[in-house]
Specification:
By secondary structure, the protein is of the alpha+beta class. The chain is built from 9 helices and 12 strands. It has helices at about 5-15, 45-55, 65-70, 80-95, 205-215, 235-245, 255, 270-280, 355-370, and strands at about 35-40, 100-110, 120-130, 140-150, 155-165, 195-200, 220-225, 230, 285-295, 305-315, 325-335, 340-350. Helix 2 packs antiparallel against helix 6. The relative contact order is 0.13.
């Protein structure tokens, strides 16, 4: 009888065995093809709170019933960051498990505000575009449109487009740079920075509007950094992505990553992103998330790296949103302790006005008197 667990015998067996590979090559993505991702996920309160606590997103509306009801929710809802990360995690097995650079994500839209715990997700992607990479002939470039869907009602909860480099089965001839994504390989002098940076006095909508008005009168920008940092550890690098069923080997397979540029597993981009956004939200009175655009992941983050946040305020429009809030457009940059930018993106959010706290207090006082 052959002892298959004898070390020498087993080593010989491994040498002869084929590997059943996971993930798809570039050639398998054809334009307009629709991919129904088999994994599903139930958005639980535990998963939501774990994600929020570990990325320092401490907005009370996602934790406490009274704060949730003030925002118009019956109960603390699923945080948009966790929803987005879960939807993308469920798509990884089919779209990007083979590896390749995550080039960016755009047109992130939340179609339902107040997704409730217990919602079951179904995820679907459509191939929007596929093209050759001129700089890396062993890769192709694929863009997908992805929707996270309420499996019970069929309603789209969140949608976005993302672009990745995907390994090819066979290297392709280059095309002199004509297929690179927009902005790839751009060169030239960096634009000069404004003379002055203006920091808002507070986190209400009017604070951002006044800061922009002050910057308009000078060579200035409304830009500031956030004090908090979060050092990446085993939980954020491996456990959070695995909890979204993100099977990319980059986040949990040290053996596969040993020969990579990082030499070790790297953080899920949405963990890095959510951490920087958590830092930013702690310095504002966010009422509701609206959407994101032009998201880019510039460098890898590994365990031991500390993620910080930097914010630039681009616009504050009081004509948009409910009476209690105005719409603010931000540009956020996540960076590490050695000042490497690792994420950037544009964000639109509704931010409470200065009068909101007074209105709430007055309402609560009136309700108390009525009850008595």
């Amino acid at each position: 009888m052959t002892d298959w667990t004898d070390p020498e015998t087993f080593a010989a067996a491994l040498d002869r065995a084929d590997t059943r590979e996971k993930g798809n090559y570039f050639e398998e993505f054809t334009e307009d093809a629709v991919i129904e991702h088999a994994p599903g996920l139930r958005l639980t309160r535990h998963g939501n709170e774990t994600w929020m606590s570990q990325t320092l997103n401490h907005d009370p509306a996602y934790w406490r019933t009274d704060a949730a009801r003030d925002r118009g929710f019956d109960e603390p809802p699923i945080h948009p960051d966790y929803l987005l990360a879960a939807v993308m995690g469920l798509s990884v097995e089919d779209l990007s498990e083979r590896g390749g650079y995550f080039l960016g994500r755009d047109d992130v839209q939340f179609h339902r505000h107040g997704v409730t715990p217990g919602t079951e997700l179904r995820v679907e992607s459509t191939v929007r575009d596929s093209r050759t990479s001129s700089s890396r002939p062993e890769y192709g470039i694929v863009t997908w449109g992805t929707r996270g869907i309420d499996a019970d009602s069929g309603e789209t909860l969140v949608s976005y487009e993302r672009t990745n480099m995907i390994p090819r089965r066979d290297p392709a001839a280059t095309d002199s740079g004509q297929s690179e994504p927009a902005g790839a390989g751009d060169s030239g002098d960096a634009p000069a920075l404004p003379e002055t940076f203006v920091t808002p006095d507070g986190g209400a909508f009017e604070d951002f509007r006044r800061a922009l008005d002050e910057a308009d009168d000078a060579d200035a920008a409304v830009a500031y950094r956030h004090e908090r940092g979060r050092t990446m550890d085993d939980l954020t690098v491996a456990a959070l992505p695995l909890a979204t069923l993100n099977t990319a080997r980059q986040h949990h397979n040290a053996a596969a990553m040993a020969e990579s540029p990082s030499g070790e597993p790297v953080a899920y981009g949405d963990v890095t992103r959510s951490t920087a956004l958590g830092h930013a939200r702690s310095d504002e009175r966010t009422y509701r998330e609206l959407g994101f655009a032009d998201e880019r992941f510039h460098d890898f983050v590994t365990a031991g790296d500390t993620v910080f946040g930097f914010t630039r305020v681009l616009d504050a429009d009081g004509s948009r949103g409910p009476s209690r809030a105005g719409e603010v457009t931000f540009e956020h940059v996540a960076f590490t302790g050695d000042e490497r930018p690792v994420y950037s993106g544009t964000r639109r959010a509704l931010v409470d006005r200065e009068s909101t706290d007074e209105r709430i207090t007055a309402t609560e006082t009136t309700d108390t008197h009525t009850d008595s």
